[in-house]
Design brief:
By secondary structure, this protein is mainly α. The longest helix is centred in the C-terminal third of the chain and has 20 residues. The chain is elongated and about 50 Å long.
Protein backbone atom coordinates (compact mmCIF):
# COMPACT_ATOMS: atom_id res chain seq x y z
CA UNK A 1 0.00 0.00 0.00
CA UNK A 2 1.38 3.36 -0.96
CA UNK A 3 1.16 6.49 1.13
CA UNK A 4 -1.16 9.13 -0.34
CA UNK A 5 0.09 12.66 -0.77
CA UNK A 6 -0.51 14.32 2.60
CA UNK A 7 -2.15 17.56 1.58
CA UNK A 8 -4.00 19.59 4.20
CA UNK A 9 -7.36 18.21 3.01
CA UNK A 10 -6.08 14.61 3.14
CA UNK A 11 -4.74 15.19 6.64
CA UNK A 12 -8.10 16.62 7.72
CA UNK A 13 -9.95 13.58 6.33
CA UNK A 14 -7.52 11.16 8.00
CA UNK A 15 -7.93 12.94 11.33
CA UNK A 16 -11.73 12.65 11.09
CA UNK A 17 -11.44 8.95 10.24
CA UNK A 18 -9.01 8.37 13.12
CA UNK A 19 -11.44 10.05 15.52
CA UNK A 20 -14.46 8.01 14.35
CA UNK A 21 -15.81 5.34 16.71
CA UNK A 22 -18.40 2.60 16.54
CA UNK A 23 -20.78 4.92 18.42
CA UNK A 24 -19.98 7.87 16.15
CA UNK A 25 -19.05 6.46 12.73
CA UNK A 26 -17.91 8.64 9.84
CA UNK A 27 -20.11 8.97 6.77
CA UNK A 28 -19.62 11.15 3.71
CA UNK A 29 -21.32 14.38 4.74
CA UNK A 30 -20.16 14.09 8.37
CA UNK A 31 -16.58 13.87 7.08
CA UNK A 32 -17.19 16.98 4.95
CA UNK A 33 -18.58 18.81 7.99
CA UNK A 34 -15.93 17.69 10.48
CA UNK A 35 -13.03 18.27 8.09
CA UNK A 36 -14.57 21.58 6.93
CA UNK A 37 -14.22 20.55 3.29
CA UNK A 38 -16.57 20.30 0.35
CA UNK A 39 -17.80 17.03 -1.06
CA UNK A 40 -15.83 17.65 -4.28
CA UNK A 41 -12.67 17.47 -2.17
CA UNK A 42 -13.63 14.75 0.31
CA UNK A 43 -14.99 12.07 -2.01
CA UNK A 44 -11.90 11.94 -4.29
CA UNK A 45 -9.73 11.63 -1.15
CA UNK A 46 -11.93 8.79 0.10
CA UNK A 47 -11.61 7.11 -3.32
CA UNK A 48 -7.80 7.35 -3.21
CA UNK A 49 -7.68 6.00 0.35
CA UNK A 50 -9.94 3.13 -0.67
CA UNK A 51 -7.79 2.31 -3.72
CA UNK A 52 -4.76 2.08 -1.42
CA UNK A 53 -6.58 -0.20 1.00
CA UNK A 54 -6.55 2.33 3.85
CA UNK A 55 -10.33 2.47 4.22
CA UNK A 56 -13.39 0.36 3.60
CA UNK A 57 -16.97 1.48 3.32
CA UNK A 58 -20.45 0.03 3.66
CA UNK A 59 -24.02 1.28 3.46
CA UNK A 60 -26.12 1.53 6.57
CA UNK A 61 -28.64 -1.27 6.86
CA UNK A 62 -31.36 0.46 8.88
CA UNK A 63 -33.89 2.16 6.58
CA UNK A 64 -34.51 5.86 7.07
CA UNK A 65 -37.57 7.13 5.18
CA UNK A 66 -36.94 10.36 3.36
CA UNK A 67 -33.23 9.96 2.74
CA UNK A 68 -30.93 7.46 1.05
CA UNK A 69 -28.79 5.14 3.19
CA UNK A 70 -25.56 6.62 4.50
CA UNK A 71 -22.23 5.20 3.34
CA UNK A 72 -19.97 4.68 6.35
CA UNK A 73 -16.18 4.88 6.04
CA UNK A 74 -13.66 3.34 8.39
CA UNK A 75 -9.93 2.83 8.38
CA UNK A 76 -8.72 -0.73 7.93
CA UNK A 77 -6.34 -1.92 10.65
CA UNK A 78 -3.44 -1.47 8.24
CA UNK A 79 -4.81 1.91 7.12
CA UNK A 80 -5.14 3.08 10.72
CA UNK A 81 -1.52 2.13 11.43
CA UNK A 82 -0.23 3.75 8.24
CA UNK A 83 -2.30 6.90 8.78
CA UNK A 84 -0.89 7.33 12.29
CA UNK A 85 2.65 6.68 11.07
CA UNK A 86 2.30 9.12 8.17
CA UNK A 87 0.80 11.87 10.35
CA UNK A 88 3.42 11.32 13.08
CA UNK A 89 6.25 11.46 10.50
CA UNK A 90 4.80 14.67 9.07
CA UNK A 91 4.60 16.23 12.54
CA UNK A 92 8.20 15.21 13.22
CA UNK A 93 9.38 16.84 9.98
CA UNK A 94 7.51 20.05 10.84
CA UNK A 95 9.03 20.04 14.32
CA UNK A 96 12.56 19.52 12.91
CA UNK A 97 12.16 22.64 10.81
CA UNK A 98 11.04 24.70 13.78
CA UNK A 99 7.37 24.79 12.84
CA UNK A 100 4.81 24.32 15.57
CA UNK A 101 2.55 21.29 15.28
CA UNK A 102 -0.81 22.10 13.71
CA UNK A 103 -2.68 21.52 16.98
CA UNK A 104 -0.50 24.10 18.79
CA UNK A 105 0.98 21.50 21.18
CA UNK A 106 4.65 21.76 21.96
Amino acid sequence: MSVPRLTKPTIAVLEVLLAATDDAPAWGLSICRDADLGSGTVYPILDRLSERGWIRSHEETTPHPGRPPRRYYELTSSGRMQAREALDARRQRRFQFGLRPADGAR
